[in-house]
Amino acid sequence: KRGRVRGRLRHLPMKPNDPPTVKLFIDGKFVDSKTDKWIDIHNPATNEVIGRVPQSTKAEMDAAVAACKRAFPAWADTSILSRQQVLLRYQQLIKDNLVRNLTGVFLLEVVEHACSVTSLMLGETMPSITKDMDLYSYRLPLGVCAGIAPFNFPAMIPLWMFPMAMVCGNTFLMKPSERVPGATMLLAKLLQDSGAPDGTLNIIHGQHEAVNFICDHPDIKAISFVGSNQAGEYIFERGSRNGKRVQANMGAKNHGVVMPDANKENTLNQLVGAAFGAAGQRCMALSTAILVGEAKKWLPELVERTKKLRVNPNMTCYKEEIFGPVLVVLEAETLDEAIKIVNDNPYGNGTAIFTTNGATARKYSHMVDVGQVGVNVPIPVPLPMFSFTGSRSSFRGDTNFYGKQGIQFYTQLKTITSQWKEEDASLSSPAVVMPTMGR
User: Fold this and answer.
1) Are 24 and 203 in contact, with CB atoms under 8 Å apart?
2) Cβ(204)–Cβ(61) under 8 Å?
3) Catalytic option among 115, 145, 283, 317
4) Is 168 helix (H, G, I), strand (E, B) or coil?
5) Which H helix or E strand runs over 9?
6) Looking at the DSSP assignment, which residues form a beta bridge with residue 203?
7) Is a pLDDT exceeding 90 seen at residue 380?
8) Helix or strand holding residue 203 (H, E)
9) Backbone angles phi, psi at 97, to 5 degrees
């Protein structure tokens, strides 16, 4: 149908007048694909084909993983302070070049958090567990990790993934959405300019073949995914079956519960913004409002505010099937009934309650079975120092994105039990050289 943006696989050779093609990024080089399978990139406003992205060949994908694998030993052995310096330069380059030009929000915050990872990488120590014996643990990188990103936030979601993985000492294989690969390619160029060694980040493109490759390749140790439930369940099952760690952040049905004591003006404005902002194409968008008790009288005013969204009968979204900005409104007599409605839904990404009563907010926050709760905050996405904690059918895996959980996902613990008998100690000269980043 017109208006839909769908990647269409083309099995035709490229012609001189065809739209520009997206390159691969392998071992520090932007290279042309040798494929004969191309996916159209559409301008979502006009559906015009503005470029083509390759379905990477098996040889190209193997080369990308091989580059990651070659780069891993030296990168993992690089001091964490040196890796941090790369990310600090990367943060500045993003600020200077991309913040005003990309749709990805949250750009600097997620990279800033990756820069501060040193304190979260600390291990644990217990001295003298018995005579002359100490026990300690520390975190090590996994190896080659991979990410599969969606179309709706083409810069933000990749930045949830590879900066955190890389500062922990991993190398990374990224597959951006075939609909909007350009943002990730720009991010790769800036990472290269920040001094990241060749091979530490590699980018492939494609659809099902690329996803299956990532799920099956034995050298890939972990997969991060954000996208639909259908794809996420498939990737989680296939990747886990092949012995990989998988974190899959998937779909949602986010509820906003409106109590009759809520601030009416603020609440109605926030409902409209959370439901219809970004055309509803975000996993944390509010898709259901529950008006509790007397709050149901606010419905006419809510409808009135949506009229300001400037939709008219000439627009495609009026004439054809709608894919995003829809708000379902339900009524509940009590808070307990509203909580039951939310908990009976299988998803657990986010929810919000609008109230001026602290006890009501506390009861809702504790009783609702949803991973992220907002109190008078319609889209409760945590800042990067916390973790994204969607739950139930909105998430598969045991460790979620960024924050402490992100560190845990991209690292593994090693525990060492060490015994040095006191009677074997010998005299030694004191060291007077100040330790530095390179030592």
Assistant:
1) yes
2) yes
3) 283
4) coil
5) strand 9-10
6) 25, 174
7) no
8) strand 201-203
9) -115, -30
Where does residue 305 rank: exposed (0-12), middle (13-18), buried (19+ CB within 10 A)? Answer: middle
Q: Map tokens 């291990």 to a residue.
A: 123
pLDDT at 100 over 90: no
Closest of 141, 214, 188 to residue 407, by C-alpha: 141
Q: How far apart are CA 139 and CA 350, in angstroms?
A: 31
Query: Contact 283/228 with Cβ under 8 angstroms?
Result: no
Which pLDDT score, from 0 to 100, does residue 309 have?
Answer: 58
| Burial label, 321 (beta-carbon count in 10 A; 0-12, 13-18, 19+) | exposed
Q: pLDDT grade, residue 439 (50/70/90)?
A: very low
Share of the chain above pLDDT 90, in %: 56
In Å, the largest CA–CA distance within the chain is: 89
**SS3 annotation, 359-381:** HHHHHHHHHCCCCCEEECCCCCC
Phi and psi angles of residue 286, each rounded to the nearest 5 degrees, phi first: -75, 125
Q: Are 65 and 37 in contact (CB under 8 A)?
A: no
Instruction: Check residue 332 and report its DSSP letter.
Output: E
Is 283 designated active site? yes
Answering whether pTM is above 0.90, one says no
Average pLDDT over residues 40-50: 89
**Residue 418 β-bridge partners:** 134
Question: What distance in Å separates the CA atoms of residue 215 and residue 239, rounded to the nearest whole number?
Answer: 5
Tell me: the pLDDT tens digits for 112-126? 777 778 888 888 999
The pLDDT score that the predictor gives to residue 4 is 37
What per-residue string of b and e applies to 193-229 under the rule 16 or more CB within 10 Å gives b?
A: ebebeebbbbbbbbbebbbebbbebeebbbbbbbbeb
**What is the predicted pLDDT for the residue at 357?**
96
323-346: per-residue pLDDT in tens?
Answer: 467 788 888 999 999 999 999 988
Integer Cα distance of 381 and 278 in angstroms: 15
- What's the token pair of residue 27? 């071992």
- At 378, the pLDDT band (50, 70, 90 cuts) reads confident
pLDDT per residue over 135-194, tens digit each? 999 999 999 999 999 988 888 899 999 999 999 999 999 999 999 999 999 999 999 999
Q: Which residues are CB-neighbours of 106 under 8 A, at least 6 positions away?
A: 156, 159, 381, 384
C-alpha 352/C-alpha 373 separation (Å) is 5
